[in-house]
UniProtKB/TrEMBL annotation:
<dbReference type="InterPro" id="IPR050565">
    <property type="entry name" value="LYPA1-2/EST-like"/>
</dbReference>
<dbReference type="InterPro" id="IPR003140">
    <property type="entry name" value="PLipase/COase/thioEstase"/>
</dbReference>
<comment type="similarity">
    <text>Belongs to the AB hydrolase superfamily. AB hydrolase 2 family.</text>
</comment>
<protein>
    <submittedName>
        <fullName>Phospholipase</fullName>
    </submittedName>
</protein>
<feature type="domain" description="Phospholipase/carboxylesterase/thioesterase">
    <location>
        <begin position="16"/>
        <end position="205"/>
    </location>
</feature>
<dbReference type="Pfam" id="PF02230">
    <property type="entry name" value="Abhydrolase_2"/>
</dbReference>
<dbReference type="InterPro" id="IPR029058">
    <property type="entry name" value="AB_hydrolase_fold"/>
</dbReference>
<keyword id="KW-0378">Hydrolase</keyword>
């Protein structure tokens, strides 16, 4: 598998970054779909570098975009196997980005939407060094049946899901919330009435709050990060 790459932003303050936020897009999109979150979050995380890698495969469900793994077979075991196969390339990318910036593993946070959420959870919970946080928007926890045997990290997790999501039902995050709690992972969940398959301002604000707390910045003003 060729190495991953994608658009980058920041640090807004200039200089070497103190944190790394990796944004993982959903099925049929690419890194440009989520890197647009970086400028707003960077206002309160001015020393963070943001990167949104393009998934490794061309999407096999349409003429455009990328995928982390195929969803032609949506049986839970097949999707978990797909995430496991994609994890190696994503882990290598995360390690390379941390090394490039001279940052430790705990300076990393993962944020993913839809299939990107599935990858953020699957990969982040198996990292040798726990990420600072995982933000999961409109996704699901794959491989929950083997999580107890494979979990290596228990970072704080934020799950955000729209109650009107007809692509990935909100029940997927409810099941994830339950499984994560059972595995000893600290979880916060936000379910948004009327929200379809997307991210709204409340979800973005919650994500920023969790990121600042995870990076030890909760009590500081934006300019002090």
């Amino acid at each position: 598998m060729a190495g991953l790459d994608g658009p980058r932003f920041g640090p807004k303050a200039g200089g070497a970054p103190r944190q790394l936020v990796v944004l993982l897009h959903g099925l049929g999109a690419d890194g440009q779909d989520l890197i647009g979150l970086a400028p707003d979050w960077a206002e309160a995380l001015p020393h963070a570098a943001f990167v949104a890698p393009d998934a490794p495969e061309a999407c096999d469900m349409g003429p455009f975009g990328r995928q982390w793994f195929s969803l032609q077979d949506r049986r839970p075991a097949a999707m978990a196997s797909g995430a496991a196969a994609a994890r190696a390339g994503l882990d290598a990318f995360l390690d390379a980005e941390l090394a490039r910036h001279g940052l430790p593993g705990e300076a990393l946070a993962l944020a993913g939407f839809s299939q990107g959420c599935m990858m953020a959870l699957f990969t982040g919970l198996r990292r040798a060094t726990a990420p600072a946080a995982i933000l999961g928007y409109s996704g699901a926890l794959l491989g929950a049946d083997r999580l107890a045997a494979e979990i290596a990290a228990r970072p704080p997790v934020l799950l955000v899901h729209g109650e009107a999501d007809d692509i990935v039902p909100a029940q997927a995050s409810r099941l994830a919330e339950s499984a994560l709690r059972a595995a000893g992972v600290p979880v916060e969940a936000l379910y948004r009435p009327g929200l379809a398959h997307g991210i709204d301002p409340a979800g973005l604000a919650a994500g920023l709050r969790v990121l600042r707390a995870a990076f030890g910045l909760a009590a500081a003003g934006p300019g002090a990060a």
